[in-house]
Amino acid sequence: MWAFWSGAELLAVKKRxxxxxxxxxxxxxxxxxxxxxxxxxxxxxxxxPVPESILEPLKVELERxxxxxxxxxxxxxxxxxxxxxxxxxxxxxxxxxxxxASLFLKYELLPAEAQLLQHCIPKSTASLRLGRERCDxxxxxxxxTLCTNLLPESKAFRLGVKLLxxxxxxxxxAMELASIVLSCNANTMESPAVDITDVVSFRALTxxxxxxxxxxxxxxxxxxxxxxSAMSPSFRPHQSSTQSRPPQRYVQLxxxxxxxxxxxxxxxxxxIAWHLQERWGIANVVGAMGDSPGPKYGPNLKSVALxxxxxxxxxxxxxxxxxxxxxxxxxxxxGSRCFNLVDQAVICPALYDLLPxxxxxxxxxxxxxxxKFVGCAPEQCSVLIASAFHPPYTxxxxxxxxxxxxxxxxxxxxxxxxxxxxAPDSNFxxxxxxxxxxxxxxxxxxxxVQPSVxxxxxxxxxxxxxxATLTAAENARLLRNYYQSRTSCGDEQFDRIIQATLACVDxxxxxLMEHIHEQGLAGEASSSVPPCAGG
Length: 535
Known about the structure:
Elements: H1 7-20, H2 23-27, H3 32-40, H4 55-75, H5 90-105, H6 111-120, E1 133-134, E2 137-138, H7 139-146, H8 155-164, H9 171-182, H10 196-213, H11 217-229, E3 250-254, H12 269-280, E4 285-289, H13 301-311, E5 319-321, H14 325-331, E6 339-343, H15 344-347, H16 349-352, H17 355-360, H18 367-370, E7 381-388, H19 391-404, E8 408-413, E9 429-436, E10 442-449, H20 472-485, H21 492-515
Parallel strand pairs: 3-4, 3-7, 4-6, 5-6, 7-8
Antiparallel strand pairs: 1-2, 8-9, 9-10
Helix pairs in contact: 3-5, 4-6, 5-7, 5-10, 7-8, 9-11, 11-19, 12-21, 13-20
């Protein structure tokens, strides 16, 4: 992202990027643009109106950002850093692009919204008026306003106009666009004069335009393929010394990277991994983890796993932080419980570099779904077990799994916020599953599972620790207790969550084992795979 900046420019821009990456800055009361994004990027295709109370503050804020951009274009990073009138706020530049692009795509523009759009988007020359027209504004007008140095003949410009025209991208186009976004610079954007404001604006507008009209399965698949192409070479099979041995693969667990914030939630992912090893003979289990991209900043797999490694003491090898593909298979030893963790910052630095921008634009883009598939290349990953909140995304994640060529997938819906865990009092949990047949076609099913939970006597009564949201350290302590006892985490309520979760995972695994064609789902799997998950 920074490749075309000089030393002085690089220091100035990186400083702003570091400031943008601080989670606490994203948690304070939102600016008018943040509130505008929240309004325009929700509802069916952005159907909800922008509140009248923020229209004037939005106009003022947009004018302020425009002024900062004009000063920046004239003076660049050499402007006085202590001059608030000319200090460029990269976060606000990203929000401006997100808001205006989303507003242009809204299902229905109210008169006041149309006036705001016309005020902010000047008309271009007639020869460049390309794409969709709304309120005498064309898609190309929006793109030229937000990315002033992006050349109209570039591939990025063509794809941007297509997105702003509410057109669906093909799988190949989505992969091209995602590759540009992951490596945004003068070369990939085919525009020698682009600067940091063009890069940030292009990335932000692509994220939110796809969100407002909802990404298709093919678009998510293309994005996932681009992300896997951008993986660190050390995580690619042909770059690893494992190539000299029989192929090994793993099962990947993936949940939302922004964690949980509600009381009563327990992240059980390490327990699921250990359970898959002991009950189902899956030798290699990987957890996809990373820093929270927002909008929540509660405990997530990364923060809990780091605390768990410390809490386990002499048993800290039960969690293994892999730095390359070899580490995954070295960490999983026969007869031992070992959960391999792969940090997004290590496996896909290009996606990790989008973190400050994703925190700035408030709402989750399609990358929040795609990041669960990083590492899911069929030659190294056999099965994905993940979660989805919205029903359409359950189906899309199954379709992406099949498009990537995985042997199978289990997507959990109606689980506990930000985790793969299951609430014990759920009437039923929905599991979407797919399994690849011998002819490489897929069988699919939607299971409704009612968790069966037995009462476990513990020293801690139910609800003793659920009045407040668990910290990462508290969550880790409960996981450590379960690792040591194999039956209880020491808290009655959370034991019920663990039981319900494992019962649902077993239901999905039972179906996979009966329908998947490949034997030995993750390479060096135990030969004593149980025929049934019950009991």
